[in-house]
Design goal:
By secondary structure, the protein is of the alpha/beta class. It has a single domain, classed as Alpha-Beta Complex (Lambda Exonuclease, Chain A), CATH 3.90.320. It has helices at 12-20, 24-32, 34-42, 51-72, 78-91, 104-121, 174-180, 182-196, 226-245, 262-266, and strands at residues 21-23, 132-139, 148-157, 161-168, 202-209, 215-221. Strands 1, 2, 3, 4, 5 and 6 form a six-stranded mixed beta sheet that branches. Helix 2 (24-32) crosses helix 3, helix 4 runs antiparallel to helix 5 (78-91) and helix 4 (51-72) runs parallel beside helix 6 (104-121). Mean pLDDT is 93; it is low at 1-8.
Length: 270
């Protein structure tokens, strides 16, 4: 199948683990490119952290602290979160090699500016106590003949509005964002309903845009429909069937130019 890594192609124990559960992240990657999924999750090939991933994970840590701070009823202090951001930025690079494409200080500063702008523009009031913050959840879907769905909800606002944060480099198109993140948002809906027995009040995408002049773009969405749930289950079924067949084929596209497994993919022989 793949000359460079052929001895590790058949890894029954790893495949069995992947069949038992599925997350929105894994499912999305499998749908995007099955060979990339194979490299990342079956062979577990490690790659250097990208600048965008480091920016995103640092911002995510700050937002998590901000949500926890509101949950505890603490007073908001910008300097406190800036200090936390700077520590996370530094600590997140320890033991890692990040190939900064441009200027690390600019990436750092633009990420912080996006956060600072969000804190002033967010529709979430400081006294609004979250319903849940960074909660791990799972839904047993064996009655649908599907693996267990797992995931982590960034934030659930009071009243059951599920929020997902995105740090991006350019302004998203709301309609495209709804489609691109449809798998993730619908998965959150399934997890929330399974955990609470209630339907979510709605879903929200909070895009923090780290352009020169930072922006915040809110994309509010209604609760997921039954059609969206059925679509997710159908995609999960394709995931399960693909793993059963060890169907790990490439999906050539313009996205290949930025793929970390480009060289490994070039060696694939079918």
């Amino acid at each position: 199948m793949i000359a460079a890594v052929e001895p590790a192609v058949s890894n029954p124990s790893r495949l069995e683990q992947l069949k038992k559960t599925v997350s929105a992240t894994r499912l999305s990657l499998f749908l995007q490119c099955r060979l990339k999924f194979f490299f990342r999750y079956v062979l577990q090939i490690k790659k250097p952290v990208t600048p965008s991933l480091h920016c995103g994970s640092t911002a995510h840590s700050v937002l998590q602290q901000w949500n926890l701070s509101r949950w505890k009823g603490e007073v908001f202090e910008t300097q406190r979160f800036k200090s936390f951001f700077e520590k996370q930025w530094k600590d997140g690079q320890e033991g890692k090699v990040i190939k900064w494409e441009d200027d690390e200080p600019e990436d750092r500063d633009s990420s912080w500016r996006a956060l600072e702008h969000y804190f002033t523009e967010t529709p979430i009031k400081q006294n609004e106590r979250p319903e849940a913050v960074e909660v791990s959840a799972e839904a047993d879907l064996s009655h649908h003949g599907l693996p267990t769905l797992i995931g982590v909800l960034d934030l659930v606002r009071q009243g059951g509005r599920i929020v997902d944060f995105k740090l991006v480099g350019k302004s998203p198109d709301p309609r495209q964002a709804e489609h691109i993140y449809g798998v993730q948002l619908t998965a959150y809906s399934v997890l929330y309903r399974d955990a609470t027995g209630k339907r979510e009040a709605g879903l929200e995408l909070h895009h923090l845009v780290r352009t020169k002049q930072p922006k915040f773009i809110l994309t509010p969405l209604p609760p997921a429909t039954q059609q969206q749930h059925d679509r997710l289950f159908r995609l999960m079924d394709a995931y399960q069937s693909g793993l059963d067949r060890e169907d790990f084929i490439p999906s050539p596209s313009f996205a290949c130019a930025g793929c970390e497994f480009f060289n490994e993919c070039r060696k694939w022989s079918g």
